[in-house]
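FIELD: query
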Amino acid sequence: MGEKYQAYRKLNYTIPDKSWTWNLYGAGLEKLGNAGQPEPFAIPEPNDDQLLVRIDTVSVCFSDVKILKQGGSHPKLYNRDLANDPTRLGHEVSLTIVKVGKNLQDQYKPGQRLAVQPDIYQQGKSTAYGYTVPGGMIQFHLIGDEVLKTDAGACLLPLKDDMGYAESSLLEPWGCVMAAYTQRRRLTPKKGGMMWIIGQPGDSASYTFPAGLDAPGSVVLTDVPASVKTLVSATGAKVTERNGLTPADYESLSKELTNGVGFDDIVALQPSSASTVSKIAKFIARRGTLNLVGTKPLDGLVQVDLGRLHYDYIAFLGTNGTDIAASYGEARNRCELRPGGSTVFVGAGGPMGQMHVQRALELPNGPKLVIATEISDERLETLSNMFTPLAQKQGRKLLFFNPNSSKQTFHDFVMEATQNQGADDVVVSVPVAALMEEGDTVMKPDGMMVLFAGVPNGTMGNVNLSNVYLSNAQYTGTSGLTIDDQASVMARRVAGTLSPGRSVAAIGGLETAAEAIESVIEGKYPGKVVIFPQIRNLPLTGLKELKERLPEVAAKLGEDYMWTNEAEEVLIEKLWEKP
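FIELD: result
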């Protein structure tokens, strides 16, 4: 360990008086910093309930671009006047505690290294570090109740000693990827909630509901058979009957009984009309379920709100039969890639798409066939260079597809690769509804679609919901993460089953933050751009350029230009200027 690196790691130096920062004063790149440059501010002393922290690394996310473009109109900035109350970008950070307020000294200590879990809720209100709470595009700043006292407790993750700085800041984006394969949907009827059961006139089937029907506090019945009325009457729930409704009546029913927020759980018995199911689905509450119970396919595709699948965690469940309860539960509804199956990653060339591909290839008992799609041959070449050796090492088959240059259609390519079976899983990392719809066409009847990229609520798409109840197809989506997701990434990194450093594509010093964000907008680098705020004289540099600019650092990279902690140590030893 070099002398300068050791001093940096152990805080064995005098903290400067000034902290250089990139404030955001409004929408647009020209509103970042002062005349395109960071500004110096005095480093404050923490009060009794605050920490003074040093930002070691901050990686740039496309979410930073969204804030930059929208300014104070971004949903998590709540129309804030940034000109007078600026924020800071940078929610993917690793940091070191410099000073600890008196009331926190039994929990934290100087020199302790942490990552931030930025997805914050306080008294039920959504905020976020790097959004509402000014983030990590700075050298030093204070952390207080806005991060330490949230609905989930302190949003700080203690880091293992052998974690590097860059890979620690990547725990956040990697945590989002991990979260995509954990169960976020509610899969059982809501306790005390409102359930709507919609039947078909003339249906005389004998339905059963052996588990879960005692949960709702209120049940609305529409044209249900006698067997369902008998079941509901035995629960003690408040029962309301509304028979003879048409789809035109659904909105007024929701307003009357749910104040317009939607039903917690909806059960549709023997659905037949795709158009009717499309209209029913509009009235699922946030984190609500639509349970389709039937034996015959719908007459077409169902139009669903793809944005709500991602952001509101609505769940489509189903069963082929008359046992209504059979649809519910985690055993019935998977969220992980099928072991030994086939997975298609749509938009695999971006930083987050790369992480999904890497995770699938490194996943023990993961998919045997991975298909990566991208509209750029250059990105596909990068993917091949990055992951073909890993796929061979893991005994997996890795294929690449560019719809712009292939003579085959996307559908034909996937079908040929899967022997006309279709893919077990389709993961979409591009916020385009048409690609989500197209992904649905190559899915097995019992496949799973993961909508990782979020499209705005109200973005509709046509999907085959018949497969949900006839074959147990799954449609999932996640937004954000928890500190446990980040901890799981770190655990896998320490265990040697995940290499977050493989995601780093470029590095830069403090002054390059604006240029780094521009590079993300342009898609200049095939991976994550990581800023080292404590380094002042490092141009934005792709890892492949290090051999010319910083050969000592390049010599410590891993195979296929993978960022390593050894390269990071040399970088700090060579370029960090001790105050």
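FIELD: remark
The chain has 19 helices and 28 strands.
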